[in-house]
Every structure is written in C-alpha cells, then in structure tokens.
Amino acid sequence: MSRKEYDTFILIDPAMVPEEKETELIVRELAPADRRYKYRSTYVTAVISKSESKYPDQLWIRLGKGQLQEKPWSIKVLKELNKFPKG
Q: HEC states along the chain?
C-alpha cells in the first residue's frame, strides 16, 4: 500500500501541536485515487508525529498564511468524522 500525503493548516506555533495523542483536525489528501477529490478537506481523528517515519502517512504542515514547512511530519488517520469544526 502506498503512503498517502496530506496537508493541514495550523494557527499556532508548530512546537505547541500535541504529538502522540488523538487529535481532531482538518486534513486534505493531496493525491487521492479519484482526482475529483484532490484538496477536499476532511475532518478526522488522527495521531501525528514530527518524525517523518513514525506513522504510515505523510503530513505537510502549513502555517496560517499558507507557508509550507520544509519537513513533513507523519500521521495515522484513525477515523473520518462527520461533523463541522467549532468556529
């Protein structure tokens, strides 16, 4: 099975992002099997790590204005949630 690539936007300092804990976040799959769903946002429960190889998939971090961090993190999506985030 190939490694999936996701990205997410964070509005806080990357050092403050919780690692190794179940976290709810919005991710976009960058290369889905069906191209029509590229960049579709999905609300998920996942665990993330700043280590690129800890979990099976890759997570690119973007800051509030879209700046891409130079090194990817890793992510394991536990489940997709059918809800909207609190705004």
A: CCCCEEEEECCCCHHHCCCCCCEEEEEEECCCCCHHHCCCEEEEEEEEECCCCCCCEEEEEECCCCCECCCCEEEEEEEECCCCCCC
